[in-house]
Amino acid sequence: MTEISLAIHGGAGTILKSAMTPEKELAYQSALQNALDSGYQALREGQSSLRAVEQAVISLEDSPLFNAGKGSVFTAQGTHEMDASIMEGSKLNAGAVAMVKGVKNPITLARLVMEKSGHVFLAAKGAEEFARSVGADFEDAEYFYDELRYQQWQEVMGTDQTQLDHSVSKDEKFGTVGAVALDKDGNIAAATSTGGMTNKKFGRVGDSPMIGAGTYANNRTCAISCTGSGEYFIRGVVAYDVSALMEYKGMNLKDACNEVINHRLLDIGGDGGLIAVDAKGNVAFSFNTEGMYRGYRTSNGDEAIGIYK
Ligand code: ASP
């Protein structure tokens, strides 16, 4: 019996070993390790899976290496608009924010929406107003500025092209981030946070803040956090689809994840991956891309960090 488990991701995409320098690889590995450690520490102290996934995601949001929080990609207007969601599997409580600007840790704001707003999903200016009313931390534009993200934006600025962070092949800086966990009380939770797509406009929102698409948790089945081409994950209702296969078809975690990522999502042309945990503490990773930044740790002593296939 696994008592506690945690898995994290930092985005999936065209992540090739040939395009990676040893320094970069090390930087990613240590950022993933830090996030894993902070989430796992919370679980070990007896905190809830909800807290643990928030902690792990905060650590990834605070790293400029990933496309979430600090390090978020540029919109067509040269701003940063972030999306995040969080869900716990015992009562199916959830919170989400979309298109928020200046919020240091969108995942914490998503939790505050869940716990203090009486709503599930707040967007744009209203979400920022709520954030101020509950004392969430804000940062100025300089905090969110990242030279490489800026260069990525320059490549498509002024065009109608949007770019998935993880499909940029020149200098890969991938990354939506997420975490899933099981705590000692047998409750599971999931969290996802992103800056979305480079050069996005018209208020584009992806799957990450959408409960059922990019994030889902239900103690009866699993907790899921996704990353990839958001439009396809929305259409495939990917996170919930994994849960539904387990609940209605009796599939195990691993098979359900593979069915959704390697068949159903691929069938509609979607690329990306997900991390998953079930109430028994089993962990699963599935992705149909070259790589996915990922890591996990369980109370059985299993632990690993991975980048490539
Ligand atoms: N799924 C995210 C989005 O479409 C992007 C990503 O996972 O990198 O906004």
Written overview of the protein:
By secondary structure, this protein is of the alpha+beta class. It has a single domain, classed as Glutamine Phosphoribosylpyrophosphate, subunit 1, domain 1. The chain is 34% helix and 26% strand. The chain has helices at residues 22-44, 49-61, 106-117, 124-133, 141-144, 147-156, 230-235, 238-249, 253-267, and strands spanning 5-13, 82-88, 94-100, 121-123, 163-164, 177-182, 188-194, 197-198, 215-217, 222-228, 272-278, 283-287, 291-298, 303-308. The strands form 3 sheets. The chain has an 8-stranded mixed sheet. It has a 4-stranded antiparallel sheet with strand order 9-10-11-12. A hairpin with a 4-residue loop joins β9 and β10 (222-228). α1 runs antiparallel to α2. 58% of the residues are buried. The model is unreliable at 169-173 (pLDDT under 50). Aspartic acid binds at residues 11, 67, 164-166, 175-176, 194, 196-197, 206-208, 227-228, 230.
Name its key features.
single chain; 309 residues; alpha+beta; Glutamine Phosphoribosylpyrophosphate, subunit 1, domain 1; eight-stranded mixed β-sheet; four-stranded antiparallel β-sheet; 9 helices; 14 strands; binds aspartic acid
